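Batch manifest, entry 17 of 40.
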Amino acid sequence: MKLMTATEASRNFAAVLDAAEHGETIVITRAGRRLALVGPAPTGNGGALNDALAGHRPDDRFAEDVSGARDLLTDEPGAQWPDA
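Output type: structure tokens
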């Protein structure tokens, strides 16, 4: 894994992409803190996930769980999650 400052990554973006294309992961830092990772993108297209989920169906409580989660949603800006 290679470390690179944000400035270096900006100035050498093509080289960063070339490294990622060849399987390398680059850690981008700013002010000494890790900011981002740039690396190879996954090659899957969702087919493996579909295959894995094909044999599994939600249990009886799944719809209740989804409904309960939706009831907690709000469009109010700055709204907080209710305490459990």
